[in-house]
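does this look right to u?? nicotinamide-adenine-dinucleotide version
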Amino acid sequence: MTQMIDGKAISAKIKEELKAEVGQKKEEGKEICLAVVQVGNDAASCVYVNNKKKACAFVGIKSLAYELEETVSEEELLLLIEKLNQDEKVNGILVQLPLPEHISEERVINAISPSKDVDGFHPVNVGNLCIGRKGFLPCTPAGIIQLLKRSGVEIEGKECVVIGRSNIVGKPMQMLLLRENGTVTIAHSRTKNLKEVAKRADILVVAVGKPKFITADFVKEGAVVIDVGIHRNNENKLCGDVDFDSVKEKASAITPVPGGVGPMTIAMLMNNCVETIRN
Ligand code: NAD
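got this back:
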């Protein structure tokens, strides 16, 4: 029987644990405050931001919402970030991406203080991850490590193949699997013989951004398959980068879409917020 890796249940459990921890910290007089900055009102961004605010309320984290006009200048946004960097009451700063074209995401990410960068995108945190130092971990790949561990999947010594090399998923995923002592290969759009490479995987993480791209012929019998993709099909139903119906017949464990990786991203964001007051 193929194991369904239940991201909804695992993320709910993590949020319960964080809620208890935050409750205890409150008794010690410690509070957490996350500043959530949104530019414009892109529909998908509104959904993500709302879910983040709801998760904060559940865990006991105060969230401050900064809703800026689509036309706000980069300079004004950078000034706001600087103000939040200086504000001792603000523990974490999150700027919802994507930003409008006239604003440089790179400059905005670089402006956030690394000690408040709860998304884990600042080059200092990326560097810390690479050299094995403490720092904020990017939420989606950190959530995948939790999914594997909490589902009883051992990573040490396993052949891990990550498909996709983006800065927010593929590359940090590679580093985190390596940190867990996996033997890691990263594949991408220029990889030759992708099928053969993917078939080496005991643990296959797919983040290509193409609906149902990975079919059963990319998967070794008994592999664990993690699907990062999120797409809406013509019937408005969600699907992933993996052709779930065919791949589930071959995999020993698999994440569904929805209800797999998605809910973990927010749970790990909450964990990063709590991390700001640990120790
Ligand atoms: P991206 O578009 O930045 O990167 C896609 C990667 O896939 C690239 O590195 C590219 O080299 C690789 N790729 C493209 N075509 C390929 C091919 N034919 N063969 C092999 N590799 C190929 O995407 P991303 O930001 O990493 O996101 C990937 C998917 O994950 C998207 O569907 C996105 O919506 C989803 N996502 C989900 C969450 C979540 O919380 N669940 C978070 C981030 C992204």
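The CA atoms of residues 148 and 154 lie 7 Å apart. idk if thats expected tbh
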